[in-house]
Write a structure and sequence with these properties.
Blueprint: H1 3-7, E1 28-32, H2 38-42, E2 46-54, E3 57-64, E4 67-72, H3 78-90, E5 95-104, E6 114-123, E7 137-138, H4 141-153, E8 158-166, H5 169-173, H6 181-193, E9 198-200, H7 203-213, E10 216-225, H8 227-231, H9 243-257
Parallel strand pairs: 1-4, 1-5, 5-10, 6-8, 8-9
Antiparallel strand pairs: 2-3, 3-4, 5-9, 6-7, 6-10
Helix pairs in contact: 3-7, 4-9
Length: about 260
């Protein structure tokens, strides 16, 4: 494999992992993790068309306000998310909104609430191959402002603040089964005391790439469940519908386009 093909530097070649050419996407992208959500999100665009699927990267392209928008899944976790956004940037995308799910950490983050991630705790590995320890992973302020405006306009119950990004899902949900359980639980409790809203698995990597590559990245999440409510014995129902976060992302993208 040539260096150009490996890096996606030659525009005559498709990007190696996402299987896309610059002309197949516009300048705006919505990034779910789950490939199964791409079609659901694409239905909110005008003239959506399936483009390609390779590995965890499934892509549709449509339009908003006459401008091309792609919807591409990134899979689970930071490494695949970073690869996906890197290659979309090479295709000419400059504005990204992640649409995902999370687990609530504060008692007022209820299943079904929308969480707008302002910055992400870097409890993962990918971001450390971009930025040194201690440097924050932050969303673009224009994207966050647009997401807040869209949430208000849609009448959604939402929260804005810091979220937590991890590599090990079961380290969060089953910490006692891990040899480093005391560290995991101590950090988790500290994050809650500091006001962290929710936990997910991709935002820190996406924000870090966005900061380094000088593109706009934001993230809106649906709270599926709140383990802290469960620990407190407070009844809740798992929320599996991502429509609220999708509507928030679509509305925000239109605001950014205007």
């Amino acid at each position: 494999m040539s260096e150009n093909m490996a890096l996606g530097a030659n525009k005559e070649h498709k990007q190696y992992h996402i299987d896309l050419l610059p002309g197949q996407v516009g300048e705006y992208a919505i990034l779910p993790g789950d490939p199964g959500r791409t079609e659901e999100i694409a239905k909110h665009l005008q003239n959506p068309v399936f483009v390609t699927e390779k590995r965890e990267y499934k892509t549709y392209t449509g339009e908003l306000l006459g401008k091309k928008v792609c919807v591409m899944s990134t899979g689970i976790g930071g490494p695949s998310a970073a690869i996906g956004i890197e290659e979309l940037i090479k295709c000419g995308v400059h504005t990204f909104i992640r649409v995902g799910t999370c687990g609530g950490m504060q008692h007022d983050v209820l299943p079904g609430d929308v969480v707008i991630s302002q910055a992400s705790i870097r409890s993962e590995g990918t971001s450390y191959e971009y930025l040194p320890s201690g440097y924050p992973a932050c969303a673009d302020v224009t994207v966050i402002t647009a997401l807040q405006e869209a949430a208000k306009k849609a009448g959604l119950r939402y929260h804005t603040g810091v979220t937590h990004c991890k590599d090990n899902f079961y380290g969060q949900t089953e910490p006692d089964s891990m040899p480093v359980s005391e560290m995991l639980k101590s950090n988790w409790d500290a994050y809650i005391k500091a006001g962290c809203l929710a936990s997910e698995m991709e935002a820190a990597a996406l924000y870090t790439v966005g900061m380094v590559r000088r593109v706009r990245v934001g993230c809106v999440l649906t709270a599926v469940w709140n383990p802290e409510l469960h620990k407190a014995g407070i009844a809740q129902t798992q929320w599996l519908d991502n429509e609220r976060a999708i509507r928030c992302a679509i509305g925000a993208m239109e605001i950014l386009m205007r």
